[in-house]
Amino acid sequence: MVITALIEGLIWSVLWIIYVYVFVTKYPWEMMHDYPEDIQKASTLPEPTAKQKKSSKIFGLIGSIVIFGTLIAFVLIQYHGNKPSYLVLLLFTFIIGMVWNTVDLLVMDWLIICKITPKWVVIQGTEGCKGYHDYMYHFKGFLIGCIYTLVMSLVISGIDYLLLTFVVK
């Protein structure tokens, strides 16, 4: 179970990386809240148009459905035909979520943003901001992500438990 959860966590991480990459490159104003304060203040991004706002909402909705639908499917496929306890489902889901949270910290935040800092992560007007190299800011985000991962796991494993109990036999 743990190996499967780790592998599925890596697959789920790839989906998240694609999702975040599209938001950062196509809809950067949607990601401003995830950047350190000095970057938010220095940003000279123009206000998005109504069409851009609509496109970002549609992408966000479709992307969220794909990402969380995939997570629900991972659990259903793993435990189809079994009667696992809610706690087993919670642990499986939590492992997958924590793999993403860890990949986000180590690969997306520390490696790509803090170390490499490619042009596609730099918000217009923020070139040279110290926030791009603030490892502690991202570590604090990781800790907050641990709480979000737990809450998300509680909800998703509850959905999967209900589906496995009443729908998928």
Q: How big a fraction of the residues is strand? A: under 5%
How many DSSP H or I helices?
A: 5
What gyration radius follows from the Cα positions, in whole Å?
18 Å
Q: Order of helices and strands, N to C?
A: HHHHH
Weakly predicted, low-confidence segments: none
Globular, elongated, flat, extended or rod-shaped: what is the shape? elongated
Largest sheet: none
Return the domain count.
Answer: 1
Overall residue-averaged pLDDT value: 96
User: What structural class should be given to the helix and strand makeup?
Assistant: mainly alpha
Distance between the amino and carboxyl termini: 20 Å
Helix content: over 70%
Task: Please tally the β strands and state the result.
Answer: 0
Written account of the structure:
The chain is mainly alpha-helical and 169 residues long. It has one domain (2-167). 74% of the residues lie in helices and 0% in strands. It has 5 helices and no strands. It has helices at residues 2-26, 37-42, 50-79, 86-116, 135-167. Helix 1 (2-26) packs across helix 4 (86-116), helix 3 (50-79) crosses helix 5 and helix 4 runs antiparallel to helix 5 (135-167). The longest helix has 33 residues, at 135-167. The radius of gyration is 18 Å and the shape is elongated. The two termini are 20 Å apart. The mean pLDDT is 96.
